[in-house]
Amino acid sequence: MPYVGRFAPTPSGPLHLGSLVAALGSWLDARAAGGRWLLRIEDIDPPRCPPQAAATIQRQLEVFGLTWDGEVCFQHQRDDAYQAALDHLATTARVYPCGCSRKEWQHLGHYPGWCREGPRHPERPQAWRLRTDIGPNPVIWQDRLFGTQRLDPTTQGDVVVKRKDGLWAYQLAVVVDDAAQGITDVVRGYDLLDNTPWQRQLQQALDYPEPRYLHLPLIRGDDGQKLSKQNLAPPLPLDDATVRPLLHRALTLLDQRPPAALHQAPVATQLAWAVDAWSPLALTPRAYRDLT
Fold first, then answer.
1. Cβ-proximal residues to 137 (8 Å cutoff; 6+ apart), any chain
2. Same domain, 234 and 150
3. Residues 73, 185: one domain?
4. Cα distances (angstroms) measured from residue 203 to each of 41, 136, 173, 198, 211
5. Domain of 153: which CATH number?
6. Strand partners, 280
7. What residues make up the domain containing 51?
8. What pLDDT, on the 0 to 100 scale, is given for residue 2?
9. How far apart are CA 36 and CA 184, in angstroms?
10. Taking a C-beta distance cutoff of 8 angstroms, is the pair 92, 85 a contact?
């Protein structure tokens, strides 16, 4: 199948260097394969998404030369598709309503499926959970960097696919949208690797194709923590003089070894080199990559 990749940020704030590395790796993988690269804004949680954050993200991608194909997909416009998928899962008994609170089960480490045979607390607002005891188990897949993965989703618990407050959960939305957009290759951060078993189970339950996966090492700051908005990672700059060396640094963090001569080269020049030179095999299979 023709390659179709995507970048799917949550607009809870501007992109930072860790986001850039993930977006750049995904973009390069698509362009080196002669494929399409789509942009999806995962704004299914409005309280976490301040106004203008999505526009800021798009501008940041543009100044780094990471242009996308087609129209931007906004998840807040996709309620009908998610509801249709949930209805199908309910009809086939793959999901169930649950009113249990985290406080009741957190000592167990994961939700144990108490409501599989009926809600224990029908008087409470109900979330919808995926039954991990049905379907592929363990889930086995080949990650393009980390090799064969074998995880048992029952040890992770029955994940929420629709929240008690009526908002859609990430696991269902990402699977539905990947299928709708014809995504063949998912390139994303290592922190989402252990989400893959839930997503593979949902793909199987909904009769969706299963994309290939490449999980990239996360970028860790000087404090040893993953670069993130929660850890106040600095936002990506927009001025060309700062963008050029930062793009070079991102290529280095992806183990692509860009020539020193490209350090101050225009963005288009750096990206042209990077597409020709892109090699996922150059990546070291590790969970984190330090900035130093």
1. 152, 153, 154, 201
2. no
3. yes
4. 21, 10, 11, 9, 10
5. 3.40.50.620
6. none
7. 4-77+181-189+208-290
8. 95
9. 10
10. no
The continuous run of DSSP H or E covering 167 comes out as none
- Distance between CA atoms of 167 and 161, rounded to whole angstroms? 9
β-partners of residue 4 are 36
Q: Which two tokens stand for residue 85?
A: 């998928």
State residue 233's pLDDT score: 86
Cα distances from 164 to residues 61, 95, 141, 176, 200, in angstroms, run 34, 14, 31, 20, 23
Q: What is the pLDDT of residue 232?
A: 75
CA atoms within 13 A on the CB side of 72: 16
Q: What does DSSP assign to residue 230?
A: T
pLDDT value, residue 231? 78
* Spatial separation of the C-alpha atoms in residues 21 and 189, rounded to whole Å: 9
What's the average pLDDT block by block, 10 residues per block, for the chain (292 residues)?
96 96 98 98 93 96 98 97 98 98 95 96 97 92 97 95 97 98 98 97 97 97 85 91 98 97 98 98 95 78
Q: Using an 8 Å Cβ cutoff, are 211 and 5 in contact?
A: no
pLDDT score of 136: 85
DSSP 200-214: HHHHHHTT----EEE
DSSP 281: G
Q: How many residues does the chain have?
A: 292
pTM of the model: 0.95
Q: Are residues 55 and 185 in the same domain?
A: yes
Report CA torsion sign: 209, 32, 253, 39: negative
**CA 80 to CA 68: how far, in whole Å?**
25
